[in-house]
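WARN retry 2 of 3 for item q-0093 after timeout on previous attempt; input resubmitted unchanged.
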Amino acid sequence: MSLIETQNMTVAMGGHIALRQVDFHINSGEIVTIVGPNGSGKSTLLKALIGAVKPQTGKVTRQPKLRIGYVPQKLHIDPTLPITVQRFLSLPIRRSKQDIDSVLDRVGANDLHDKQMFALSGGQFQRVLLARALLEKPQLLILDEPTTGLDQPGSAALYRLIEELRTDLGAAVLMVSHELHVVMSASDRVICLNGHVCCHGAPDIVASAPEYRALFGTGTHGALALYRHDHDHSHDHDDHEGCTHA
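OK item q-0093 returned
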């Protein structure tokens, strides 16, 4: 059984359809990456999976008592609010110092306990968010563009850590990423979204699919550029033509 899956799921946000008829699943131990241009519904899909938004039609099925650790794309901390890393990790559920020490050590941030959240660097902040997700002892770790704002060495280090966590925890990992080299090297499957599933499958299959190339070309030195793709809106019946599914 999949950890979580959607069937024919359509989601409306702000009065318009953000996702149309999405079928999705992720199994234990998999790393699945979602790619797509701005406004393609990537974050909406993640929010639907964790139950933050409800589908208009279709359904989301989760394994009973599924433990999910979620790392959002952005989290604003008011710089006028004094809150240490230790305190942040104890909200909204009080956690033991032993548990907090354990997760901070696991993400390489064991020297940050007493540091103010607003004073963290981008890389430190992302590691603390990851540590918070690990407090849930997740079977599924969901990360929404976890390397936003990080330089290349910082991004590489964070992705290595995520792969290690997949191995150590036996957890599945679902990521949104705009970094082509990571998608192709670290993922078991790739899902290409643009308001619907354009194509999906193993990375090499998706990379050669016409739908993927229409969105992203053949790559831009490892970073996915942001494209506007009118084709998908006017020719929905061609969604899967030429795309091999895995």
